[in-house]
Design goal:
mainly beta, 7-stranded antiparallel β-sheet, elongated
Amino acid sequence: MSGYTGTQAELLYAMPAPCTAVTAASQTQLNGTPAASNPPYQIPAGFFGPGNGGGLGKAIHVTGGGFFSIGTSAVTFVLDISFDSTISTHGISMWKTGAFTTTASVTNGAFYFDLYGHLSTLGNGATASALTTVGSLDWGTGNNAATAANAGYMMGAPNAPVGFNAAVPQWVDVWGTWSATTGSPTITLTNLCVWGLN
């Protein structure tokens, strides 16, 4: 807690259980499965707006991670964290990697993402508000004993704030896309947390 302002980060959501593994060569949701016992998190309508401690500079922090395995053939992968106004339907990418090439022959590798966003525009309409986003993805072998360096990928585009509708609820969804099913690549989200920072 800040001794100056009296504000503190508030944990809004912690995913209760690991999700179902994703193996498809198409954009597939990593979180929210099974939906009945492990639902995704929904940012309430007006969370970023005035009167809710919000307005310009209102910030969130999203972290998460899990494990993956890659067969003997390298493939590419895209990680995408979006705001979705309809549950489990991809909406607007807030933080996203490009398609990066994975290392082949990895069993139970680990990944971790650490993301920030703050409201830089507040308006009315479908994309009238905007979130300035930045963050990173770490990707490498699990329980790394200094035998191999992890790969790091930037996420978000702080030079181009992302428009969204701040007046309606937004689901925070995590999506993954393998380029192929060759070698049966798989990824499982085990941790996801969302904080309000102010």
